[in-house]
Amino acid sequence: MLAEYFPILLFLIVAGGIGIALLLVGAVLGPRSKNKEKSEAYECGFEAFEDARMQFDVRYYLIAILFILFDLEIAFLFPWAVVFKQIGLVALVEMAMFLALLLLGFVYCWKKGALEWE
Amino acid sequence: MLSNFFHSWIHDPLIAHAGTFGLVVWLVLCILAIAVPVILTVALYVWWERKVLGWMHVRMGPNSVGPAGLAQTFADVFKLLLKEYFMPQAASKFLFVVAPLIALVPAFAAWAVVPFDDKVVLADVNAGLLYLLAMTSLGVYGIILAGWSSNSKYAMLGAMRSAAQVVSYEIAMGMALVGVLICAGSLNLSDIVRAQGGNWGIFNGFWLPLFPLFLVYFISGVAETNRAPFDVAEGESEIVAGFHVEYSGAPFAVFFLTEYANMILISFLASVLFLGGWNSIFPVSWGFLGAPGWWWLFVKAFFFAFFYLWFRAAFPRYRYDQIMRLGWKVFVPITIVWVLVAGCLVYFDIVGPGKV
Question: Does B254 lie at the interface with A, CB-CB under 8 angstroms?
Fold first, then answer.
């Protein structure tokens, strides 16, 4: 059972190897020339005004939280979908209730304006 | 069969002479037999993209390097590899180097579970679809780490935009996958393809009963890969190149490779999940036209890959708030409702393995 996953592990390693090989080739073949102006962060030719790690819009944070919630719901839906045929009507009704609750929460954040970008 | 030939001439002697180590060598050979063609396909796909865009703009596209410009991409790759490996002073050194790798590895590793033909799949695992969802989700780490570690405002803004967009469309994508799961009753991709076999050719595919989910899946796939018309992450008129503005040379080539490998992956997955994978688009009874085979999967994937290019030539870029509105306010409700519809369809035996 677990042996089936061994090729995947190998694939991860080989893919990493391909990436490292590409980066190494680039590092070896490419020229090197350092100067102060070049090693500054690119800001259309200006010197950087302030730190790049500035405050960002709180809505990105909101999107991240909503993503976690909804992705969890999907994780719950996956096993249900696989055995749906075996369980029958109970599965259908239960999941209709689950999705109705999900929709309720979704409508709530929609009404609260969590999905607005104006 | 070709695979039998390889099995008896390479697999068996390797196992006989080297045991477990031989098995590892065999698996690495198999992996390279997937990864190297993917890289070559990316090169040809870039050439094809430039050609198609050229024709759609009524110009020639690349036509000087090699026959019909075919060697253009290879020339570009070598040029990129010969450029300076540059790192800004303020960057977080380790993350800056690792970010392209974190982006590349899942884009390649996801191919492990893609079934090319009946039993021609590297890892025929039970949780194939779950693994795919995990791998496509991991790609966003590469983007956000690249943007953060560059310590540049453009990169930071591009990464934030891109990450928010990718995770938003991920939800619609995951819900569309749930619809496929209900109809197929299995997480194994080979089983999903087999569930779409039957006497009706292309009309056995899940795209017909799950049509809204099919559209949502492919459009989300376009948004996931940050391609036009959803390419605000690298919107060159506002934030120059987005998250990879500080990358040059080989690391940039890695990001480029990742993006195109992901596009081809989405094309293959859309074919496997909705258009019946290796099954013929014609009824089985039509002789050799109806015979299943890997070529059908490739034809279908080419169809989707072409749509990517067509979208890029046809649509203007979406504004960011429009992208988020489409993802959250249109796609998420559609998918939630259609998952229920799919549940009813399967419960009342209208759709299911071998039906339609």
Answer: yes
Indicate whether A11 pLDDT > 70. yes
Tokens 């979704």 belong to: A106
Average pLDDT over residues A57-78: 86
Distance from CA of A29 to the nearest CA of B (A): 5
CB contacts, 8 Å: B39 with chain A: 18
What pLDDT, on the 0 to 100 scale, is given for residue B3?
A: 63
> Cα dist. B100→A114, B76, B89, B109, B147 in Å?
32, 18, 18, 14, 11
More confident residue, A48 or B137: B137
Q: Identify which has the larger pLDDT, A65 or B9.
A: A65
- Is it true that the peptide bond before B333 is cis, omega within 30 degrees of 0? no
Spans of chain B, pLDDT less than 70: 1-5, 7, 235-239, 352-356
Residue-wise pLDDT for B118-148, tens only, equals: 877 888 888 888 888 888 888 888 888 888 8
- Give B120's strand partners: B117
Of the candidates B101, B168, B182, the beta carbon closest to that of A63 is on B168
Long-range contacts, stretch B300-307, CB < 8 angstroms, 24+ apart: B300/B270, B300/B271, B300/B275, B300/B276, B301/B264, B301/B267, B301/B268, B301/B270, B301/B271, B302/B267, B303/B267, B303/B271, B304/B218, B304/B266, B304/B267, B304/B270, B304/B271, B305/B45, B305/B263, B305/B264, B305/B267, B306/B52, B307/B218
Backbone φ, ψ for residue B344 (5° rounding): -65, -45
Of A14, A77, A103, which is closest to B178 when you measure between CB atoms? Answer: A77
